[in-house]
Amino acid sequence: MRTQNEITSLKLVQDLYAQFNIKTELSTNQYDHYDIQTEHNWLLEVKARRLDYNQFISYNKDGFIMENLKYNFLSQYEQSRYINVFNINGNKFILNWRVNEIEQKIQNMNCKSTTDFNNNSYKKKEIILLKAQDAFIYLVKGEKFIRVEYNELLRNIC
To answer: Are 60 and 132 in contact (CB under 8 A)?
Structure first.
């Protein structure tokens, strides 16, 4: 069963795509390799990230983790997206990477076994590191999503 935090993040992403008149549907199984499918058969994998401002800056220096397993699955589908959702200092925003534009530089890293915040065990995984500057960034302003550049995002969330 999806957590309330995950449901909130998925709804936010669905609202973003609705702004562009793209219909979406949640995957039926929370353990699928994607969370949302669009009417155009785009697959969207969504991760809710729980970070404060300083952690966001720190994580972005190396990059946000995308498992290579997810990349391999999503890259089979044209126009698939890997999405991170944040709420920092009351500012909601979305980092949206087009999977077919991600450079696949694989690294091995000890990562949490699952994204379940109650499971703190680690295992070695193949990962790809993603920078916020390479994503389409959408900042929530009222009921609208505004596309911003990275430096503008930082000015808004600090």
So the answer is: yes
**What integer is the mean pLDDT of 37-58?**
95
CB 82 within 8 A of CB 99: yes
Which of 42, 21, 150 lies closest to 98, judged by CA? 42
Classify strands 24-26 and 81-88 as parallel, antiparallel or unpaired: unpaired
Residue 3 C-alpha from the chain's centroid: 16
pTM: predicted TM-score of the whole model, two decimal places: 0.91
Q: What is the pLDDT of residues 109-131, one digit of tens each?
A: 887 766 555 556 788 999 999 99
Measured distance CA(119)–CA(114) in Å, rounded:
7
Distance CA 130, CA 141 (A): 25
